[in-house]
Amino acid sequence: MAARRVVEIERKFDVEEETLLPSLQDLPGVARVDEPVEHRLEAEYFDTKDLRLAAAAITLRRGSGGEDGGWHLKLPKGPDDRTEFRELLGEQADGVPDALLRLVRVHTRGDALVPVARLMTTRTPWSRWHG
Length: 131
Prior knowledge:
By secondary structure, this protein is mainly β.
């Protein structure tokens, strides 16, 4: 089975710590704003022992919690965007899914992918609905 493929555009902005979130309800086209829900997330990142994927700006992680749990492989596409491949945890929760292994084989050259980092975070997303 092939991994689900999406293009992700990510831009990060720095603001001062005292900057307040504007009222999302007042934005044009927003019909309603749901109350935020706190998610506890765990992400385990995989790479070769010598970090070949990281050197190639590739991210491979297994995540749980929140709304997008599962395997995520992000390959660089341009300065601000990456192609992301997703797999559900399914029966292969402890090992990297074959579909994702095939996509990084050129970088790993047969070396094992091992856990290299584990992050536990709390995320509070805000949902807005366009009318």
